Amino acid sequence: MTKTELLKSIFGYDSFREGQEPLIDSILSGRDVLGIMPTGAGKSLCFQVPALMLSGITVVVSPLISLMADQVRALNAAGVHAAYINSSLTETQIAKALENARQGRYKIIYVAPERLATASFLSLPEYTEIDLVAVDEAHCISQWGQNFRPSYLKIVDFVERIPKRPIIAAFTATATEMVKQDILCILGLSNPLVTVTGYDRKNLFFSVEKPQKKMDALTRYLKANKDKSGIIYCNTRKLVEEVYESLNRLGFPVTKYHAGLTDSERKENQDKFIYDELPLMVATNAFGMGIDKSNVRFVIHYNMPKDMESYYQEAGRAGRDGLEAECILYYGGQDVRTNEFLIGKQNEQDELDEEDRQAVMEKELERLRKMTFYCFTHDCLRDYILKYFGEYGSVYCGKCSNCLTEFEEIDVTEDAAVLFRLIRTSGSRYGISAIVDAVHGNNNEKIRKYRLQENPYYGQLARTSVFRIRQVVNELLLQDFLLLTPDEYPVLKITRKAYDWLEDGNGPEKIVLKLPKQTPASDTKSGKAKSAAKGSVQGAKYPDLFEKLRALRMELARRDHVPPYIVFTDKTLNEMSAYLPDTKEKMLQIGGVGNHKYEKYGKDFEQVIREYCKAVTVDE
Length: 620
Ligand code: ADP
Ligand code: MG
Hints:
Number of helices: 27
Bound molecules: adenosine-5'-diphosphate, magnesium ion
């Protein structure tokens, strides 16, 4: 079979994605490769297709147990014999798997790096021909990478034991130069084909929101997006617990994940999420590495993460199936401080000397600043991301909250003066909400307690909405007119710059800010975000059929003990409910339906579609 035929019959796809074909061709011609492709680009296929075409077996080194299990499950469902060897198996199971491998029962065998050095694995090359060693998540070999794994160094020893040097294929999503050089050198790739494909994920919608009450914004969003699967990232365990509790109380189908849970709790919760029993996951950044759940429709960051690398990696877990998905970041005034605190704490624990530690800290703080600018830029968010990773974007993507928001220039000289004066005359002692309430003239308990209603500037911005005042405060913070103290309850103060500005003898210079245009419903921006993503997310032509197919998928997934997306992805069901394939021939034209899967699952879906077409007159 040719590679294209394989792609169709086993994986059910019509065409290769960017970058896949050259890598596959190179491997098949016996040349090493290094593929640098973003998360979700389809790196696995680049070694799976050659694995099925080479005469011997392929060993895939992968760092994560869940990732291996997932890929092996997907391969088995597609009719490919594959297995994995890692610490989740008993010694007897491992012995059995290796025995099968020696007898050539598998085309592909996944192995955890620390297993490579065991005697039983090291003897494998004596019994069977290993043509290809694929190193997934290859950045783990580098100390400069995000997840250095010393056991990755064992790959080299293992390869040296193989009588005829196999082709080596390395894959990663991390493209920094240091990591790349490490991979090339340590793995000893010989004259490799190195490909780097674009970082842009066109199906993702990006937005930044600054909700006054994050919980309200979140529940509003979740209500409007019922039945979809999504991840909500929080930056502390405590916050995960709080958000989880609140959502649970409100009856949302939610589970949680963080490093403070026991191994079994984590596994159980992760499975519930993957199997769509509980399609919402609230988690810290401990969650997600190696989770290839293709139907995640949104990733919400309840806090700003510490850098763009983390953000793009986490947000990138949305829309792996290529369908529309949303990545929303809720920025809050506290987020910068919390991150500074976390960065400081993390560096305390490192065994670096003082000088190195300072250098590392500075780099991290610089990355945090870039992340913060992402939350405040008025330019295209996608462009900002791509530039950050060293690519040219376009100035307008039309698919992020900034491109869809009209901005206007507003003269806030008066507002700023009132804010600064109120802060100064009240002794620079209060947090953002007290100050905003005071200038707006709210009369609540806090105001009365602090006697802010007696301040001469109290209520002077009564005609400006609280939302707008907050926006102005945010901008003034960013422009260094205001600052928040690094305390548990941050206090809003004016800076030297604001002080000088107020005292300028010629009368203060104008302050003009670029702010989102106010419309009656613009309080959260999500109105726009939603309408942009609507329709395309689930563009099924016959939505009730889609639901029927989904139900069938759930039934089959339960029967075979696999996650629903292993049966068919949302994208595949979408195509089915748009094209109504009621014969084998038509079914095989649907993306994601290969021969094996057709026999195993496709027939049942075909049946449901046929019944559906009989029951309703379908309009063309
Ligand atoms: P990566 O490892 O690069 O993050 P994966 O290999 O996990 O990405 O692939 C992500 C998703 O894309 C999977 O659901 C996979 O089946 C799908 N995919 C890969 N190649 C293709 C293709 N040529 N056409 C359609 N879908 C593809
Ligand atoms: Mg991968």
